[in-house]
Amino acid sequence: MVRKGATPSAPGQLGFIGGSMGDISVIVRGRDTDENRDACWSTVHGAGRVMSRTQAAGKMNWKTRRRLGGEISEERMREAVRAYGVELRGAGTDESPFVYRQLQQVLDAHAGTIEVLHRLRPIGVCMAGADEHDPYKD
User: Fold this and answer.
1) pLDDT value at position 129?
2) Which GO biological-process labels does this protein carry (predicted)?
């Protein structure tokens, strides 16, 4: 089976589900349940966005090197990540913790497909900065 935006979760199968830079990530094991079978032995692959990249960060004009709009400030993002105890290097507001759901809420909604074995907490995040052009970014 080809999965896009899903984690394989056959009974006993181990998987990883990532949260945002200011949230937990988890190691999971697939459950042998009707709910999991009905989901084709698949579960979530992350928390899911609640805000688009452009809505969060605004639109960059690469000719003028100026960003217009954007609901999340870099200061707000950096303060939230620092308060969570994470060392942040680079990163744009389009990947801020504010643009993702809380992973625990998503895991709770899909508890019938997976068992959480381990909760992982980030200590550092390294990403290309907002002012760096990445042709592979959405």
Assistant:
1) 80
2) DNA repair; RNA processing; RNA repair
| Nearest alpha-carbon partner for 64 in 128, 131, 137 | 131
d(CA 29, CA 51): 29
Q: Any binding-site annotation on 42?
A: no
Does the pLDDT of residue 138 top 70, yes or no? no
Distances (CA, A) of 66 to 63, 117, 127, 135: 8, 44, 20, 17
Per-residue confidence band for 136, with pLDDT thresholds at 50, 70 and 90: low
46 is in an annotated binding site: yes
Domain assignment of residue 67, yes or no: yes
The answer to whether 43 and 28 are in contact (CB under 8 A) is: yes
Structural domains counted in the chain: 1
To which H or E segment does residue 55 belong?
helix 53-57
Domain that holds residue 12: 7-124
Q: Which residue matches tokens 């959480």?
A: 116
Q: What is the pLDDT of residues 29-61, one digit of tens each?
A: 999 999 999 999 999 999 999 999 999 999 888
Is 110 a catalytic site residue?
Answer: no
